[in-house]
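subagent[fold] <- orchestrator: predict structure for attached chain, return tokens only, no commentary.
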Amino acid sequence: MMSTVDVHKGFSAEERAAMKDHSTELKAAARRGSRADKAAEAERSVLAKIAEMEDSDRIMAERVHAVVTANAPALAPKLWYGMPAYALDGKVVCFFQSAAKFKARYATLGFSDLAQLDEGPMWAAGFALREVTADVEARIGALVRRAVG
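subagent[fold] -> orchestrator:
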């Protein structure tokens, strides 16, 4: 007899939607032509995804996009599981997760293990965002510059 602890409930609807988004992103990337075409289409896709967001998420995502692209031009915008992300050589370094994506109370700026944010034996790899102020923009700029070393 199985206990309730042994029952696997599977993925949430939000997780399934994110995986479907990722599958669509991979198929679209495979159909694109030249490297320049792929980069331009990827940025258009990121900007379109940001435009679809609810007001506060959209405003923060627009600011994050502007700060990341200005401070780390080596990072290329792309969609990653339906989220705006920024990659180096095709590998995601950081991403913006809207609060609405997983029904959270705050948006998140996250960094992958490729980001060079190491600081001793423990460091932050994700940051909660409720508003992007001038101070927050400065911190994000410093983080993404450090992330790409």
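orchestrator: received. Logging for downstream: Strands lie at 76-80, 83-88, 91-97, 107-111, 126-129. The mean pLDDT is 92.
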